[in-house]
Amino acid sequence: MGSNEDTASPLLNGNSLQSETLSPEEQQELKAALEELEEWKLKHEKADTEKSRLILEKLDTEENKKRAEREALDLLKQQDLNTHAFNNKKKTMEEGLLDIQKKNDALKQKLKDYEEQLQLKKNEQASLQQQHKIIAEIPEKKVKFTKTRNSEDSEDSEDSVNIEGQFTIIQRPSITLKGGQALITFEEEKVAQRILKIPKCTVTFDNAKMDVKPFNVMMDPSVKFEVHFSVSKKTVKFSNAPPVLSDERMRDRLEMSFSKPSLGGGEVESVEYNKESGTGLVTFLNTGVAERLTLKKKYPVDTGHPCREIRVSPDFQYQMRKFQTFCGVSKRTVLLAGIEDALDEEDLQDNLEIHFQKPSNYGGEVESIRYISKTTGSAEAYFNEDTVEAE
Asked: Which pLDDT tens digit goes with each residue over 117-169?
């Protein structure tokens, strides 16, 4: 036993004895075994370290997993709350939208009712306008000015800047006389009133009879008014000015063009110009220039492009005053209707006049009469204060 311990001791604990007890081959194997042992020790330590790391990672992963599960549960709860809130809000919005739709439908119905009322009012307005509409053709008439008057001074003045005038327009009352009708005017009002009380008048001619019906003469509305006007002696209007320059440059060009005496112009006091409409006003320092240019009606303006002619017209203001409307019934004139063309127009008119002149027929002296046959068509009858005429 002692020899075995002595033999093992140098093999395990002393390098000095290795060379004495082991052969070189054994010593080499022993060295290799020791190196391998060291390697396994290192691997074992690394394995323990990796095991500890994996255990820690596993613990961390389990903790993260639990935290993720808790967060997922919280998110699911929050999602349920959000879904519930969204559904509630959606329901509220749908109810609000339905309420808005109902209000909108009610407003549309109100709008439709108002539009119908507006249309009725428009129709009523159009009817009233038609009843009081003035339709009159005013013939052209030559006018001669005998003097001028300053608008600020009642005395005549050669320095006045305006020419003033006044016209009275009178529209004679009228009716449309249709074919088969006649208008008869008596000298006395009481005769017309007697005839109007008769339902029908039997007119005899050439052994034949004809029943005609008398009616009141309802005249169309007519008007009377005054037109006061004032024409400037220093200012003219122009139109059709080409929009080829800026406002400021165009005003300068207009002022230069209207200042040329060779073209009929004169010294300019001011220029007003509207580029959008191509219109404006030119005011001169002296009178006479405006009248001269308005008689020419056109004036050349140099805009830097090919010369253009613009239209020139008077600058005037007008106002309607003392407007009066009137309508009524003629007291001495009777409308006879239902007349047949038994004779020619003149013969039948004479027979009617003879019939209504006889006191035995409740008639009297006839001032005027006009009959329109059915072949003639119709005519406009115009009334004066005491007479009746027919066209």
From this structure: 999 888 888 877 766 555 555 556 666 655 555 545 444 445 567 888 888 88
Q: Contact at 8 Å (CB) between 179 and 376? A: yes
Measured at the alpha carbon of residue 309, what is the angle toward residues 305 and 312, in degrees to the nearest 5?
140
Query: Which residues have CB under 8 Å from 174's CB, separation 6+?
Result: 219, 220, 222, 380, 381, 382, 383
CATH 3.30.70.330 assigned to domain 225-324? The reply is: yes
Q: Minimal CA–CA distance to 279: which of 246, 312, 318?
A: 312
CA 125 to CA 299: how far, in whole Å? 45
pTM of the model: 0.44
CB–CB of 258/268 below 8 Å?
Answer: yes
Can you give the pLDDT at residue 213?
Answer: 92
**What tens digit of pLDDT does each residue of 227-273 get?**
888 888 889 999 888 887 888 888 888 888 888 888 888 888 999 98
Q: C-alpha angle with apex 52: 46 to 57, nearest 5 degrees?
A: 120
| Percentage of the chain modeled with pLDDT above 90 | 12
Smallest CA-to-CA distance from 310 within 257, 369, 378 is with 257
- Listed residue (157, 195, 140) closest to 330, CA to CA: 195
Q: Where in the chain are the domains?
A: 1-131, 169-221+327-390, 225-324
- In whole angstroms, give the CA distance from residue 217 to residue 183: 9
